[in-house]
UniProtKB/TrEMBL annotation, chains A, B:
Keywords: Hydrolase. Residues 510-603 form the Non-reducing end beta-L-arabinofuranosidase-like GH127 C-terminal domain. GO terms for molecular function: hydrolase activity. GO terms for biological process: carbohydrate metabolic process. InterPro entries: 6-hairpin_glycosidase_sf, Beta-AFase-like, Beta-AFase-like_GH127_C, Beta-AFase-like_GH127_cat, Beta-AFase-like_GH127_middle. It comes from Cohnella endophytica. Coiled coil: none annotated. Residues 409-507 form the Non-reducing end beta-L-arabinofuranosidase-like GH127 middle domain. Signal peptide: none annotated. This is Glycoside hydrolase family 127 protein. It comes from the Bacteria.
Length: 613, 613
């Protein structure tokens, strides 16, 4: 049963390399990413032996495998990020460095196609004995890197490695062959990418076969035996089409749902649709932090029970927030609903961006919403999935901005820059977007079709936005003449070159409350302005002691854009009931100055007011 | 025990006749008031025999008293309004007409000073036998009219009538004389006005004596015997300094508290202060509608139990909303806190303004927050206190805008126009305010002291306003350099002629919820933007049936100022979950087109959202 709201839209995100960012907010972050973060992560992969593991497995270096069985994936993710970087600025030195690493990876592939340096070096006789050991997870990240590097450079070498690896999977697993439930999802969505790049349907079929393996008792390995964890930890408790609730390890769950959305998209598999809608609602309505963070518990890096969202002990792995964005990007394309892009936005400006320092060389794995002062970013982790996930997410940020709909263009995220694309009917359109987002709700969009042409432009109305104004070529557009569909303003008209949309979202300071079921936030409020969730940090608030103060939920806050503060942020300044100053900064920007406490959810001064807004 | 928050400020409102309105919103309303409403009310007082009652009592006409025992007060209130009108535009024809009525009033005064046409004509032997019969209530309104007419014209005749009447009260009542508890308060605050105009302390003393009579068993009359009503109905249940909760008839209660505030102001009577703070909180935190309406019940024209705020059967007498403003204006001057001006604002743009049609000739006595379509304004009422209260409230609206503080000026309400005043130290200052309020949160204030001079200007930060910006002579003022005191931004500096304040209050569309104790609003929300409470009216919403639809509380609303709609209003347009259009208009402006249903509180579509703002 597919209701109207579930009707599939089959949009196509405009790839980030067609989007020339000219955006004060993101451009600067990406410059740092390219100049600092990517280099730092490559160096870490080198110095921690992650790259050397490939040389060792390939026989060009001596020694044992170093690190964890999933460390190959970090190298792949940095390669993926480097490929994205090369799509924007083709840097020959970087490309030569990647080529060298690609050669090492290729050398590490066994003759039958097998590739996972841990098993090759450490336990070649134990391959495929423990489904938790990330063999296909590594393979999935190899695929994503290979596709990215092929698209960036046209070089097939890594893609061929990936195809050989996947063909090897196909030799071993599948209908009438061995069962396999990959303990950490990733391979499933990667196989769909590989299918899209190569056109080989067997990759798509293998992806869906892997999904269908789950929840049928085929899984086994260390994780399945762990008393608290079991099959639900890696989403092996029910067949995927029967999923209704989010469970277990947060990143794994998100990657699974992302793959399910991909399969619906590519195969029309309608039996997954209800599962996707149900688990989406269960995730975002009961198990998501206001920052877009998910997975409250360190114990299982994942979910516990509904509305369990502690602040200080919030795990909120950076990767989990990113994975939530990956999934929601796919849901948006699949169903054409702005509510999914809202989640992407919540993640990209809050719970994911907090994962990286302004300097670009320090990272959070864990993103709590309160800290007494002991939580700080570091340069690398023993398990370093988060830095390397940021390295591939951030350069592709422009890819979240636009999507091609059936006939036109949707603006999903508001980033300044030029985008060039062809409509489904072949007409080329250039669009130039200017905005002070996320500090200002004004967006100016200049539309330049190659000739006059009728098509719809959809503008997302963010979930946080209660009111907006629209002008077309300087003339206000009345609401009666607007169509709103699935959270988008739809401007369906004949566009002429130079037509200009001025879209002004009212970006008010608001205080936010949780549902009362969220115990941790009872009697507390948070502050948000536009997409940005704010926090108080000790550095700006010497009058207060951690959690030992109250503010009125109707406090007034002066908005001030401070270009020299924290890389340029809008700061909110107000007073406590005693008149002591309270200064809010964006949550993502905390822990970039002297160490100190931080709080997102503030104890609320009971005002007795009969009406609250 | 007087806490810091109770510290008295003793501000002095700048009288409306020093404020030259040049304001799109109010100027138009006042033009209609002067050209239509005042005339209509004078004509009604004539045609219903209210004016003739004075001629009959004075012997210049024949016949019985017509109407109710409190009808004299309507004539006084129209005279008061006419006097205010004359202060702005001295219209000789109107003044001649008022002079004629004043002569009739004076002729109706008995030789001992007694004046109340009902008793003189109908039951001269029964004077002062039933404390409910509004004898001093009529006298109070006579005083207010007399003071106004004296201030407007310098003519003492009506003032002399008033003084003779009050001296007559003093002959009969007071310490060691007869007891009196006036059933409908009004005389008490009027006596303070008379004291301020004449300087006669006995008027002040009589006022306080009358307050002190209450709650001591001295009251008697029809109303005291009524089973459901009793002493609490007219606030005769406890001595005034022991009042903690609002009770009984809403207008009576508000006039009482207004008088108590006056007495604190004039005498320093500290034992009333806690009562005022307590009853204020009890009124606005548990017993006030979002429109500023008060008194839910028709039965007693007043209060029932806490949080009893039904919408369709809301009584919300226009006079009660006005009286709430009168009281809060006094509280603001007494304590210098913006929260009282917030209440004045809530009343003036909502629950009071709804009392009069845009055409100026039709009135609501009852102001419900929901109607199935049968509630409409009419030209006059048998008991017509509400139209005549509006006639005196509206022309004095400019008097709510500014107050002189101990050293400077406070901007309480944002209305465009020029104001000229002298600071307490004698320096003359002119201020020119420009604003698009209440549709726009920008206020530009040009300050012109006669010479450079240091004094504070206080800008109210409205309770609805979460954020604001401030510029001084074009330069942004940082929040750190701002002082906020009791809800005001305090700009204490040396002002030069031509200094310009640009104060921009972020005027966002917000959805408002009641405390859960308000049963009528459970599962409902209202929409507010700036000071304006919105409603849905049938005329704009043909897709909906009364109360049989739901909207999402996070719905998006396009703001559109429509100069030709309802006298110029900002309309909010959105969609229901099915995409059907929903159009909100200001509550005050409903029932000015074809009859139809109206709702302020809208059934909320449960979204399941974990975070709400």
């Amino acid at each position: 049963m597919t209701s109207n709201i579930s009707a599939q839209a089959h949009w196509r995100p405009v790839p980030f390399h067609q989007v020339a960012l000219a955006d004060g907010f993101w451009k600067r972050r990406l410059e740092t990413l390219n100049s600092v973060t990517l280099r730092a992560c490559l160096d870490q992969c080198e110095s921690t032996g992650r790259i050397a593991n490939f040389a060792k497995a390939g026989g060009s270096a001596e020694g044992e495998h170093k690190g964890m069985y999933y460390d190959d994936s970090d190298v792949y993710k940095v390669l993926e990020g480097a490929a994205y970087s090369l799509m924007t600025v083709r840097d020959p030195a970087l490309e030569a460095e990647i080529d060298r690493i690609v050669d090492l990876i290729a050398s590490a592939q066994e003759t039958d196609g097998y590739l996972s340096t841990y098993y090759t070096l450490q336990a070649p006789q134990s391959k495929w004995t423990d489904m938790e050991k990330h063999e296909m997870y590594n393979g999935g990240h190899l695929i994503e890197a290979a596709v990215a590097y092929f698209e960036a450079t046209g070089k097939r070498k890594l893609l061929d490695v990936a195809c050989r690896l996947v063909d090897h999977y196909g030799d071993l697993f599948g209908p009438d062959k061995r069962h396999w439930v990959e303990g950490h999802e990733e391979i499933e969505l990667a196989l769909v990418k590989l299918y899209r790049t190569t056109g080989e349907e067997r990759y798509l079929k293998l992806s869906q076969w892997l999904l269908e393996e789950r929840g049928r008792g085929h899984g086994h390995g260390a994780i399945w035996e762990k008393p608290d964890w079991g099959p639900a930890y890696c989403q092996d408790d029910v067949p995927v089409r029967e999923i209704r609730k989010v469970t277990g390890h947060a990143v794994r769950a998100m990657y699974l749902y992302a793959a399910m959305a991909d399969i619906v998209r590519e195969t029309g598999e309608s039996t997954y649709v209800d599962a996707l809608h149900n688990v989406w609602a269960h995730t975002v309505e009961r198990n998501m932090y206001v920052t877009g963070g998910i997975g409250p518990s360190q114990h299982n890096e994942g979910f516990t029970h509904d509305y369990d969202l502690p602040n200080e002990s919030a795990y909120c792995e950076t990767c989990a927030a990113l994975a939530l964005a990956f999934w929601n990007q796919r849901m948006n394309a699949l169903f054409g609903d702005a509510k999914y892009a809202d989640i992407v936005e919540r993640v990209m400006y809050n719970g994911a961006l907090s994962g990286i320092s302004l300097s670009g060389d320090k990272f959070f794995y864990v993103n709590p919403l309160a800290s007494q002062g002991e939580h700080h970013r570091v340069e690398w982790f023993h398990t370093s999935c988060c830095p390397t996930n940021l390295v591939r997410f951030l350069p592709s940020i422009g890819g979240y901005a636009y999507a091609l709909t059936d006939r036109g263009l949707a603006l999903n995220q508001f980033v300044g820059g030029q985008v060039a694309f062809r409509l489904p009917d072949g007409i080329r359109v250039d669009v130039d977007t200017r905005t002070g987002y996320p500090w200002d709700g004004g967006v100016r969009v200049e539309v330049k079709p190659e000739h006059s042409h009728s098509f719809p432009i959809l503008l997302r109305i963010p979930g946080w936005c209660r009111s907006f104004r629209l002008k077309l070529n300087g003339e206000p557009v009345l609401e009666e003449r607007l169509t709103v569909e699935r959270g988008y303003l739809v401007l369906d008209r004949c566009w002429e070159t130079g037509d200009c949309i001025e879209y002004t979202m009212e970006m008010a300071v608001v205080t936010v409350h949780s549902r009362p079921e969220v115990e941790a936030n009872q009697g507390r409020f948070a502050v948000q302005r536009g997409p940005i969730v704010y926090c108080l940090e000790q550095e700006d608030n010497p009058s207060f002691t951690y959690d030992a103060f109250t503010l009125r939920p109707d406090l007034q806050l002066a908005c001030e854009y401070c270009p020299d503060t924290l890389g340029g942020v809008t700061v909110l300044r107000g007073r406590d009931p005693e008149g002591l100053p309270a200064t809010f900064i964006p949550y993502y920007s905390w822990d970039n100055r002297r160490p100190g406490w931080m709080q997102v959810w503030i104890n609320e001064k009971e005002t007795g007011a009969i009406y609250t807004s």
